[in-house]
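Internal QA ticket QA-208
Title: Verify multi-chain structure generation after dependency bump
Assignee: T.L.

Test input:
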Amino acid sequence: MAAAGGAVSAGAAVSTVAMETAAACITGLRKQYAGRAVLDGLDLTLRRREFTVLLGPSGTGKSTLLRILQGLDAPDAGAVLVPLRTTSVFQEPRLVPSLRVLGNVMLGLPRTAPPRAAAREALAEVGLAGHERDWPATLSGGEAQRVALARALVRDPELLLLDEPFAALDALTRRRMHGTVAELVARHAPAVLMVTHDVDEAIALADRILVLRDGRLVADEAVDEAGDAGALRRRILGLLGADSVPGGPT
Amino acid sequence: MTTLVAPRPLAAAAPARSGWRVVRRAAVPVGLVAAWALVSAAGWAPAAVLPGPGAVVAAAAEIAGSGMLGTYLQASLLRIAAGVGVGAGAGLVLGLLAGVSTLGEELVDSTLQILRAVPFLAMIPLFIAWFGIDEPFKVAVIAFAVVVPMYTYTFLAVRAIDAKVLEAARCFGVTGARLVAGVVLPQALPGILMAVRVCLAVAVTALVAAENVGTREGIGYLVAMAREYNRVDHLFVCLVLYALLGVAFDALVRVAEAALLPWRPRVAR
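Actual output:
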């Protein structure tokens, strides 16, 4: 099952995508730490309205790529183009504890009426209407992550970066968050790049799955709602280096 | 056969009733005052060496009756306010600067570490040469005494803020003065209020030293007069005044904490 609303020609080759449909453009990206290249000549174009999930073994540079797209780290070589409205949800909620929930959603926005109304609306969208005046310390992990999601959405992003946003949540909360995210992405239609370790999560949410290994993309697969999810899952687990692939839920 | 034992909880089963906590806290001070009263009432110590609690209360009433107590207390409090205002203000700004920016730390930290090594008492002769013996001198001594502790605690408080939260704030376009005022300062506030408590305690110490020189009003003047006329009961009144100042300042900061930190999860004090 794929996220709703992602009607995308995911099978098209990256090089043929016209710039009008690109939400981010990465060419020849290199980044090394202590002499080791974590990203080694990466080429990637993210398309508008497409939910892309990036998988890869630990330490393969997934988070480094997101940090470069967020402008938190500088690349050593290569070109990176992102939209002006690029926002993030991190693995941790990263809320400012001294600001109320509404203040956190409005972080960095002018304190005027229109953003305030938009922030209230975003909170309602993530199911937290009425929590505007709560302090972050009183929220559960799932609620705090929903606030972080609202904070990213209120900016009406053209590119939404999600860095393992559900990793710290319990299984039940994670499933509910999948539903919320799929619904919101369908409504706001930003391009999404999400990093995760969870292949099932990737298949559930993505229009397109990328596998990063040794600093390069080793797979770029379209997720077809009608396709064989089980076969896709086994293929990706194989690429991720899982030795024995157990038959998972499909 | 396995031996089973009941686990021994490390924490008490239930928190003690607050009434008993107050009693336990008050027990030792009240006991000490009682012992003091006993020793002086039994005549084990001459009144010129150790006046009893009653004599001290009478002395306090005498000073208060003369109208001097209010005037002197006001003079001393104004000195503390001015000294702490200048010194802690400077320490706060420098601490924020060094805490937020690496450049700031490089520019500021070494100087303050050098100042920290200089006891403020050692500055008194120099400050007399620079400022004379009147108010500017007294304010300078107090300011010098509090600037380093304020700086140090503020710096540590800023550095203790979750770097990931700051990174997120920067990511959402909050930078520069807005970052410091809206995100850094509020989160450092628990540490900064702790610093204010330390500074007020240090300020009382500095006040004693500063009022030792060229004073015509203030608690220090009371001390000087008591020494001059060998009034040990007045000396005790002065000690009690210093203690009350300390307690009052602490209470003040606690009230400020409750008012300024509503976002902090409630923890046992």
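Spot checks passed. Chain B has one domain: 58-259.
Status: verified.
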